[in-house]
Amino acid sequence: MNYLSDENLKLLVLKSRCGDSLALNKVIDYFDPFIKNFAKKIYIKNFDKNDLYAECKLTVLLSIKKCDIKKYNFTAYTMNSIKNNLYCKVRTQVKFQSELSLNCKVSDESCTFQDMLIDTTNPFKSFTLENALSYLSKDEKDIIDHIYFLGYSSIEYSQKSGVNYRTCLRRKNRALTKLKNQLN
């Protein structure tokens, strides 16, 4: 690090808080060697060196804003903030260590996991829901249509069609049983 006395560093921090961009750049440049050295020792998945470097610079900016320079040594405060921030990032990324993208290459081949998962055969191609619905009576089709496709409740359907609620439930259950038997 370029040596700056504590008083000079405090003065630069106060100037940068007031909006002096030159002082802000000097403070960031002061911590630049530490940031580069520390960032190259840390590995975080999906972060490259530039991301870590930018994260550390952001931490320096937050330290300038938050550090009470009357109570704390700014250099120590900022260095600890940088370390703590990166270690926190490492801890949060540990949760996602076992993730695997479907777009990753499979061994030495040029295909991906997603290519392997694509199924070209369709087992339901020969028998569709429309074929199964053709086995239902008109009343059973009507109740299935209103309850499952139009969003009516069983009570609303029974009131709309003028059918007893219990009869409505029996028709619905009978229709679902027929559909289940046809699809299996």
Automatic annotation (TrEMBL):
The keyword Cytoplasm does not apply. Transmembrane segments: none annotated. Pfam families: Sigma70_r2. GO terms for biological process: DNA-templated transcription initiation. This is Uncharacterized protein. GO terms for molecular function: DNA-binding transcription factor activity. It comes from Clostridium felsineum. Keywords: Plasmid.
